[in-house]
Automatic annotation (TrEMBL):
A single MF term (Gene Ontology): acyltransferase activity, transferring groups other than amino-acyl groups
Name under which the protein is recorded: Putative acetyltransferase
Domain N-acetyltransferase, first and last residues per copy: 4-156
Keyword Cell division: no
Biological source species: Candidatus Regiella insecticola LSR1
Keyword Calcium: no
Length: 156
């Protein structure tokens, strides 16, 4: 991802995150947008140059058409590391074509470090389509809040 792509991605990602935070919230939209912006910039303070974070544009090999974006990082846990997927955003007209499945499977296939034992992600509770996809791919809930579910899949 280059700087121009990141600028567009950041704008859309913050807006989408704020919209998800608004569901079931009594806070004012402006406060939610500020919270979403703060959360995003705290995770990526240096944008695409934030150490340890990977933001990749997914492109069709044949047509060079943009299919989506994946953002992930390798994060330490108590006794191991996990590959944490922060975001998978498939272009609207490319959804339900197996692209998210391929992204996750490709990420898992590339894991070679022996201390990475799991892939984790967090999904909004209202996003039933994503939850069902992740369950189908072998992810199980490990933490559930009123707003989100954290899911994990072991590396086999």
């Amino acid at each position: 991802m280059n700087a121009e792509e990141f600028k567009s991605y950041a704008h859309d990602s913050i807006k989408n995150y704020a919209n998800s935070l608004l569901q079931g919230s009594a806070k004012k939209p402006a406060d939610i947008l500020r919270e979403a912006t703060d959360d995003f910039t705290s995770l990526l303070p240096y944008g695409i140059n934030t150490t340890g974070h990977n933001l990749n544009v997914i492109v069709d090999a044949k047509s060079q058409e943009r299919l989506g974006i994946v953002w992930y990082a390798i994060e330490p846990r108590e006794s191991c590391h996990v590959l944490f997927i922060y975001d998978i955003d498939v272009v609207t007209n490319q959804r339900r074509k197996g692209i998210a499945t391929r992204i996750i499977n490709d990420l898992m296939a590339k894991i070679t470090h022996p201390s990475i034992l799991h892939v984790e992600l967090s999904v909004f509770i209202h996003n039933k389509v994503a939850i069902n996809l992740y369950k189908k791919l072998g992810f199980s809930p490990i933490e559930i809040s009123a707003l989100t579910m954290t899911m994990r899949k072991p590396i086999l």
